[in-house]
Amino acid sequence: MDIIFYHPSFKAASWINGLQQRLPQATVRQWQPGDNAAADYALVRTPPVEMLQGRSDLKGVFALGAGVDDILTQLKQHPEMLSESVPLFRLEDTGMGLQMQEYAVYTVLGWFRRFDDYQQQKQQTLWQSLKNYRRQDFTIGILGAGVLGSNVAQSLKVWGFPIRCWSRSPKQIDGVTSYYGADQLSDFLSGTQVLINLLPNTPQTVGIINRQLLSQLNSGAFVLNLARGAHLVEEDLLAALEAGEIKAAALDVFVQEPLPETSPLWSHPRVAITPHNAAVTLPEEAMDYIAKSIQQREAGEMPEGRVDIVRGY
């Protein structure tokens, strides 16, 4: 069994050693330009077209991240890069779910307890207690009900908040009110106090968080974007913040990354920023998942996490 590996920033040696320990029967090598030798599996992040092109015998390609938009973008430009017969897999969780839970719980509780307001008061040397929000009115709406969305919903549910989610197709999460499809999006937004975005990045979801959508949230709502910068129209968010329609936002992802120094988001007092690190690939967990998935493929099974290239996730 031959496995090829490519990542623009990960150190290949640790991945090669880790995978060979988990799959002693495999030969793992770092792909280099000009390497056309046989391979059964490929582990990639933003791979060069020539790495995968013509490899119709691959049993699987594993994207080294929760999202696969980098590969799907390449496929639009170079549809010949990956044979239709080769399954593409994303990392279903591998520790990312817990990281997303930590980020969401920390941020939502901070807003609920008004720590952002107290921080503003600190800047004014103002000692003043503020009226607490009512938990039953602090409805949290999650865009996206996949693995990460479901994990975040469960982590927030234990704090007693009303939780709802929206997805393109019907999904059921225990104790969470579910909405789906374009016809139910307005109902989902109405009454939502905190909007958390964990949607996949597809042509249908680009720019979905715009002024029209934001205007349907509760007045003074909060926005947390943990998915992709392409989902959010940044100018519309800023306009909604200035109009008081949105009270605050926490953003981990941006249309352009790194976020340009000239972006007004940097200086806005109600916008928290992190550098696209809400959830990062954890090598040990990722290698465990990939090794298990390869063993399933070798046994004739189809692992979880297969990407529907047409739908984009």
Automatic annotation (TrEMBL):
Q: Where in the cell is it found?
A: Cytoplasm
What UniProt keywords are attached to this protein's entry?
Cytoplasm, NAD, NADP, Oxidoreductase, Pyruvate
User: Which reactions fall under this protein's catalytic activity?
Assistant: (R)-glycerate + NAD(+) = 3-hydroxypyruvate + NADH + H(+); glycolate + NADP(+) = glyoxylate + NADPH + H(+); (R)-glycerate + NADP(+) = 3-hydroxypyruvate + NADPH + H(+)
Q: Does RNA-binding count among this protein's keywords?
A: no
Query: Catalytic center at which residues?
Result: R228, H276
Domain (D-isomer specific 2-hydroxyacid dehydrogenase NAD-binding): give its ranges.
107-278
Q: Which Pfam families match?
A: 2-Hacid_dh_C
| Sequence intervals crossing the membrane | none
SUPFAM superfamilies, alphabetically?
A: NAD(P)-binding Rossmann-fold domains (SSF51735)
* GO molecular function per UniProt: glyoxylate reductase (NADPH) activity; hydroxypyruvate reductase [NAD(P)H] activity; NAD binding
Write the signal peptide boundaries: none
Q: What does the sequence similarity comment in the record state about its family?
A: Belongs to the D-isomer specific 2-hydroxyacid dehydrogenase family. GhrA subfamily.
Task: Give the protein's biological function.
Answer: Catalyzes the NADPH-dependent reduction of glyoxylate and hydroxypyruvate into glycolate and glycerate, respectively.
The protein, known as? Glyoxylate/hydroxypyruvate reductase A
Q: What is the lineage of its organism?
A: Bacteria, Pseudomonadati, Pseudomonadota, Gammaproteobacteria, Enterobacterales
